[in-house]
């Protein structure tokens, strides 16, 4: 799940984001996210920025890759104009959505080529696409591999037909192992996303899904607690009493079961919702977000973070397309699809680092916590006593969550922030 929250507040199309001091980026790597905002149908639980064919208001799925290439030109022009030159090669690229695999593989290849020709790719760059199990084949995946993709992440969610039905997933469960096998055959690193806590899902059903995921031996597994997003069909069904609300205690049991089964099968947690078979198969792209590196998010609604600034693009593909269409070509300072931005000052930057890095297994240094919280010593001692952070790691200067701490990660982070 590599996209970030999407918002249309401060919607001022036409103002190029101002990145601020380039020296802040000197020690950061550069990454690219490409948001492909198309799905065949919308799943009942999902509030990602995605559109079915009838919601596109004239935006063209077929023309998407060439519109996105314009934003790549815009990014190059703006980064150079604002002193972020020479351009840094992309250390990772992530195509997320929506459903990137709704597009022909040749369109994904075209966008990746645009990024590689413009920025270059670091020598061991990770290049991932999210995939719906229903729209990939061996041919599709080998075309992606030939184009430079290195990794594929399947939206599996569950192996249990009743749970998939509650989630309104339309994919055929048997297409997940077939797709994963094909990914292995063509040499792509691979991952599956699971969701736990669908209304009515039992612990036994969740166990079946975990066992089915483990049996396929993917390189990486993400397990997300279902979020009931306001405005979704699922939220309305729960509000009307048609479906029960997810139970918090059962969710905790499901997280513990996930960690138990995944650890026993050789997967190690490296972020609260992510487990990997080895260090080399962790998601480099997501780690870049959690470590506050620089990234440009291309596409409708995508968020970016460069230098001192975060900004986000217009959400609707038609608005996004209009902002980038201009017969005069890309003009620095114009043609921007950005809809709003915010400057991140140094204290906000530290707070955000704590929020993100505390959730990864490398943890965050106690020195950073002390810089943000004058009661850090007392808080840390209490968290160790409550078995929420690891005592031996703290003695070595790092705050690392225990299993109980991962279950209460938001509470621990609030305490650390003071
Ligand atoms: C963009 S989707 C993945 C690709 C593709 N669209 C699919 O669903 O097969 C990214 C992931 O976000 C997760 N996700 C989406 N909505 C969620 C929600 N409300 N709660 C928890 N996880 C969610 C799902 O696990 C999903 O696989
Ligand atoms: S297919 Fe993926 S992005 Fe599309 S609605 Fe479902 S979960 Fe959301």
CATH architecture of the largest domain: Alpha-Beta Barrel
In the residues, how many domains can be counted?
2
Number of helices: 16
CATH level-4 homologous superfamily of the largest domain: Aldolase class I
What gap, in angstroms, lies between the N and C termini?
A: 29 Å
Poorly predicted segments: 3-12
Reading side by side through the largest sheet, how are the strands ordered?
7-8-6-5-4-3-2-1-9
Q: Can you write the helix and strand succession as a string? A: EHEHEHEHHEHEHHEEHEEEHEHEHHHEHH
Mean pLDDT: 93
State the shape. globular
Catalogue the ligands.
S-adenosylmethionine, iron/sulfur cluster
Indicate the percent of residues in helices: 25-40%
Number of E-type strands: 14
The structural class is: alpha/beta
Largest sheet: 9 strands, mixed
According to CATH, the fold-level topology of the largest domain is: TIM Barrel
Radius of gyration: 21 Å
Descriptive notes:
The protein is of the alpha/beta class and 418 residues long. The protein has 2 domains: 22-290, Alpha-Beta Barrel (TIM Barrel), CATH 3.20.20.70; 346-417, no CATH class. Helices cover 39% and strands 19% of the residues. The strands form 3 sheets. A 9-stranded mixed beta sheet has the order 7-8-6-5-4-3-2-1-9, sandwiched between helices. It has a 3-stranded antiparallel beta sheet with strand order 10-11-12, with no helix packed on it. Strands 13-14 form a two-stranded antiparallel sheet. It is globular, with a radius of gyration of 21 Å. The chain starts with 29 loop residues before the first strand and ends with a helix. The relative contact order is 0.15. Mean pLDDT is 93; it is low at 3-12.
